[in-house]
Amino acid sequence: xxxxxxxxxxxxDQVLDDLDQHGFALIDHAYPADYVTNLVNExxxxxxxxxxxxxxxxxxxxxxxxxILWIHPELAVAQHHVATLxxxxxxxxxxxxxxxxxxxxxxxxxxxxxxxxxxxxxPQQKNDRVVSTVYYLHEQWQDDxxxxxxxxxxxxxxxxxxxxxxxxxxxQSDLLHEVIEAKQQRLSITAWLRSGNSIW
Length: 200
Fold this sequence. Notes:
Layout: H1 12-22, E1 24-27, H2 33-44, E2 51-52, E3 55-56, E4 59-60, E5 67-70, H3 76-96, E6 100-110, E7 116-119, E8 129-136, E9 149-152, E10 158-161, E11 168-172, E12 177-179, E13 186-195
Antiparallel strand pairs: 1-11, 2-5, 3-4, 5-6, 6-13, 7-12, 8-11, 8-13, 9-10, 9-12
């Protein structure tokens, strides 16, 4: 899917500055309301296809309990988000020489009681994940519903990021983070901007 430009609501200069200074950035009001509605509909109509993310190579992991669906070409609405992240990757490459080449992404659903314990998406540079992104696509959220992203920035400071609807959180994939236990169904798209030579 071809996306010619980033949404007008994305302040790319601020995003680049926040990534440079702190290792993470937030984009609020990321997409128009009609796109958000279509994306939520696409996600929720496929919930029966989601699978436990905790099972890897036949082994049940204890650090996460969410459910996921990898985004494939037939998920046309979500593909627009992936294409937009590809365009963002070009900006990141120009600014930081990251060599990002691809985006991998999946829908994620945290049911009440589900969580993702402290981890890094790219521990000891063992994979090609350079920048991690989470787009919150549930239509409403309250602070006491849990599901926050708890993140340690590149300076060692901890932050609690609320999963506000239509928000994108992006951060260096080697940063320590967790998803606090959700008390309501929490929907998102997790995506990684990948490179063959991570240099953060």
